[in-house]
């Protein structure tokens, strides 16, 4: 399995780390904005990590974590490493079962405990830790970070948040503003802030507690993902549903904000105000505007079915802050949304409100099997395409 | 072109003069809220400022700072955005301005730099003793120098469009008093929360005297400044949105209708006077505000500038309001908070302070009680100041080109 990355690379998190001194960043466009998929190579002196084994990728804004989980597991970090941060590979990660990374913390799951390490300080103990009880009652809850037995690990303190066992949580995706949970029965629950429609309940009000997305009732889902202000899920049948903010086309629906930006008009910025409370233009419905007989969507408050390609089903999806990447069952990678840093991988810096296939993988006869997005970049794992027999 | 070149060199010299002399003297004080990766990016920008790096590299680092902080500014509610992120955004604007103006900026670069300063002033928070405000003044000077005087296309502005003027019935007219004493205003209007039009209290404003506000005056003082504009007929409508335009663009498009754009535009509820100090100097907060509990700094001053026909739907505000009319006239209707039950406020949290009823064209089937609600009304003229007591419902329609200034106080 090989990994490729594209998009934001100012801290060398995709390639070129060895050219940077501690705490440095790139300043020229080619290195900062990687617009063509580039293979990730393990750093030379990482003899500790088994380079040939499969690894998983986790990414934040300025870093990428490579998880080596076979045998002698560990986590290796790329990207912004300052004087104060922990060494590489993260020695404290030896033996971990899973890891997630945010801009400030690396959270590690071991068989008996969880630990969150502050990436901005050099410390000998984690900022937070918790024992995992192997209680038969809650052992049904899988360890699937950020899900942990009885709850989940949030991106900021308090780290541990409990979840009702009634939810039967199977997987969880978090953004800084909202959360989307997939239950064992395929039901999708959302909570958090909702001012951009990212909760999918048809309104723009927040939800304090997990609330089922009724519009998807009866349609079992198999995968959920969150971007900064949008949500995505895949049905058992391989259909993709999107909702939330579409200002950069991250929903794959026509985006007026995108057309305006390319026409070099000023972008819309919305403010709240005491009198008008007009942070959105309509209270309860998807916002639409008509220009040139086209209907634009800037906020989609109910899930919408997105047809990426009529030919095949979606197997997995991941979201960056303002872009989305989906892998089909036929091994193609489609991306759409914000593209200023090359995170769509189409060898341009253009944003797009239409899903487009990343052609490079097709051209090189590579089959994409997984995709993981950082805030402003995208990582895809590929295997060689099997040539169909005669 | 050599003349322009020397002008532009002067521009960078002027801007450098207001920046710290070297990297060491350039502060980047940030707390724990801003991650160290972002601080590193800020340091990189600062380093570039004092080195020979290309404009492209500087623009890129500034862009990274602006993109990241923009995302923070859009996270959560505006009220709760940590001020540190707004400061990062302002630094991003500063570094972008430097990238645009170092070397040989074109006229477009200068306008883009002006716009960038305004974005920092609108969305950011003051840094380095409000350096963006200082730089804006330098950039405005450059723009004025290189802009030839436009031929006097004196469009007929005075009464371009006079909307339908309602006749005010005597029985429901808001009372008018010329220069009431502080005490009588307090006793008869403020304490009992009764509306009043105060006459003769702003005659001394420079906006009505030495610098009478006019389209030409506003263009000269603020023409190239970027301001938020509300587009669409009223904020309860589906097609309503906000956009950013220069004052010149706003005047051309929505007041003079130069490019035939349909739909209305309103420079509404904007703290223009914080952004453009020259205009702040033309107005004064009413003396009567001293009767409240707050300080002068706590008074929120908003500008309301637009063509005839702009409408603010019936709504209420949580503070006392003095609405000063400077240019043009407005039809205003007031309802007491005691009659809220007849005014059908929206249920949603977002619009609970706004009535569902279209005051001048009410749907009597959906809102039968509305006709029974007593009201007061007026046509507010230049020089008038309307006292709108706290929580009093008010509906406003401009009858012609209009500029009002509101003072929210407690």
Automatic annotation (TrEMBL), chain A:
Protein name: RCC1 domain-containing protein 1
UniProt cross-references to PANTHER family, sorted A to Z: RCC1 DOMAIN-CONTAINING PROTEIN 1
Pfam families the record matches: RCC1 (PF00415)
Domain of life of the organism encoding this protein: Eukaryota
Region ranges (Disordered): 254-292
Stretches with biased composition (Low complexity): 263-272
Signal peptide (from-to): none
RCC repeat residue intervals: 186-237, 238-330, 331-384
TrEMBL record, chain B:
Record domain JmjC: where: 265-410
Residues spanning the membrane: none
Keyword Phosphoprotein recorded: no
GO molecular function: chromatin binding; histone H3K36me/H3K36me2 demethylase activity; metal ion binding
Cofactor: Fe(2+)
Subcellular location per the Swiss-Prot or TrEMBL entry: Nucleus
Alphabetical GO biological process terms: protein destabilization; regulation of gene expression; rhythmic process
This enzyme's EC code(s): 1.14.11.27
Keyword Transcription regulation: yes
InterPro entries: ARM_KDM8_N (IPR056520), Cupin_8 (IPR041667), JmjC_dom (IPR003347)
Catalytic activity: N(6),N(6)-dimethyl-L-lysyl(36)-[histone H3] + 2 2-oxoglutarate + 2 O2 = L-lysyl(36)-[histone H3] + 2 formaldehyde + 2 succinate + 2 CO2
Protein's job: Histone demethylase required for G2/M phase cell cycle progression. Specifically demethylates dimethylated 'Lys-36' (H3K36me2) of histone H3, an epigenetic repressive mark, thereby acting as a transcription activator. May play a role in the regulation of the circadian clock.
Protein name (record): Lysine-specific demethylase 8
């Amino acid at each position: 399995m090989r990994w490729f990355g594209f998009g934001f690379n100012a801290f060398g998190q995709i390639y070129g780390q060895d050219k940077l001194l501690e705490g440095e960043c790139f300043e020229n466009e080619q290195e900062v904005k990687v617009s063509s998929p580039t293979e990730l190579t393990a750093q030379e002196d990482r003899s500790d990590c088994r380079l040939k084994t499969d690894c998983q990728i986790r990414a934040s804004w300025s870093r990428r974590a490579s998880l080596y989980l076979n045998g002698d597991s560990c986590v290796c970090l790329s990207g912004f490493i300052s004087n104060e941060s922990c060494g590489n590979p993260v020695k404290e990660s030896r033996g971990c079962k899973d890891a997630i990374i945010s801009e400030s913390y690396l959270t590690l799951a071991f068989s008996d405990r969880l630990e969150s390490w502050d990436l901005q300080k050099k410390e000998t103990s984690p900022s937070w830790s918790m024992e995992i009880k192997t209680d038969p009652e809650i052992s049904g809850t899988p360890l699937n970070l950020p899900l942990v037995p009885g709850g989940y690990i949030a991106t900021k303190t308090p780290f541990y948040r409990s979840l009702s066992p009634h939810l039967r949580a199977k997987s969880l995706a978090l953004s800084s503003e909202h959360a989307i949970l997939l239950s064992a029965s395929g039901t999708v629950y959302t909570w958090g802030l909702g001012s951009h429609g990212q909760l999918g309940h048809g309104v723009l009000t927040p939800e304090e507690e997990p609330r089922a997305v009724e519009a998807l009732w009866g349609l079992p889902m198999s995968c959920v993902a969150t971007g900064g202000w949008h949500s995505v899920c895949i049905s058992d049948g391989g259909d993709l549903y999107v909702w939330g903010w579409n200002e950069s086309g991250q929903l794959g629906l026509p985006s007026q904000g995108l057309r305006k930006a390319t026409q070099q008009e000023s972008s819309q910025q919305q403010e709240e105000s005491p009198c008008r409370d007009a942070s959105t233009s309509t209270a309860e419905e998807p916002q639409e505007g008509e220009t040139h007989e086209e209907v634009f969507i800037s906020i989609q408050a109910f899930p919408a079915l997105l047809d990426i390609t009529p030919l095949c089903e979606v197997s997995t999806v991941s979201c960056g802050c303002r872009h989305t990447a989906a892998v089909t069952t036929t091994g193609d990678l489609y991306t759409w949304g914000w593209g200023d840093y090359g995170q769509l991988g189409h060898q341009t810096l253009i944003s797009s409100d239409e899903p487009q296939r990343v052609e490079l993988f097709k051209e090189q006869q590579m089959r994409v099997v997984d995709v993981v997005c950082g805030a402003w970049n995208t990582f895809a794992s590929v295997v060689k395409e099997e040539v169909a027999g005669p | 072109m050599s003349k322009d070149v020397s002008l532009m060199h002067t521009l960078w010299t002027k801007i450098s003069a207001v920046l710290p002399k070297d990297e060491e003297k350039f502060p980047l004080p940030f707390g724990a809220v801003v991650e160290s990766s972002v601080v590193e990016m800020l340091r990189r920008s600062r380093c570039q400022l004092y080195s020979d790096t290309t404009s492209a590299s500087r623009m890129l680092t500034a862009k990274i700072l602006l993109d990241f902080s923009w995302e923070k500014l859009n996270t959560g509610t505006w009220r709760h955005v940590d001020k540190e992120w707004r400061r990062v955004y302002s630094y991003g604007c500063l570094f972008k301005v430097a990238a645009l103006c170092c070397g040989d900026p074109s006229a477009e670069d200068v306008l883009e730099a002006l716009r960038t300063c305004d974005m920092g002033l609108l969305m950011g928070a003051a840094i380095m003793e409000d350096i963006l405000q200082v730089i804006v003044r330098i950039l405005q000077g450059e723009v004025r120098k290189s802009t030839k005087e436009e031929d006097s296309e004196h469009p007929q502005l005075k009464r371009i469009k006079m909307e339908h003027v309602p006749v005010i019935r005597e029985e429901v007219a808001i009372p008018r008093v010329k220069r009431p004493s502080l005490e009588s205003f307090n006793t008869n209007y403020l304490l009992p929360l009764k509306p009043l039009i105060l006459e003769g209290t702003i005659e001394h404003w420079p906006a009505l005297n030495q610098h009478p506000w006019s389209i030409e005056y506003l263009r000269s003082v603020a023409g190239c400044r970027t301001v938020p504009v509300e587009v669409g007929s009223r904020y309860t409508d589906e097609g309503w949105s906000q956009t950013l335009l220069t004052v010149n663009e706003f005047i051309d498009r929505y007041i003079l209708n130069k490019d035939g754009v349909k739909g209305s535009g309103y420079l509404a509820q904007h703290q223009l006077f914080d952004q453009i100090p020259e205009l702040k100097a033309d107005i004064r907060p009413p003396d009567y505000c001293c009767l409240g509990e707050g300080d002068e700094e706590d008074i929120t001053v908003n500008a309301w500038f637009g063509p005839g026909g702009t409408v603010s739907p019936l709504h209420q505000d949580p503070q006392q309001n003095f609405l000063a009319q400077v240019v043009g006239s407005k039809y205003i209707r007031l309802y007491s908070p005691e009659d809220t039950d007849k005014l059908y406020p929206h249920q949603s949290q977002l619009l609970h302070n706004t009535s569902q009823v279209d005051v001048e064209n009410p749907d009597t089937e959906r809102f039968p009680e509305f006709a029974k609600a007593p009201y007061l009304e007026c046509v507010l003229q230049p020089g008038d100041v309307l006292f709108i007591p706290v929580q009093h419902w008010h509906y406003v329609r401009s009858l012609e080109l209009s500029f009002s200034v509101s003072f929210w106080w407690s």
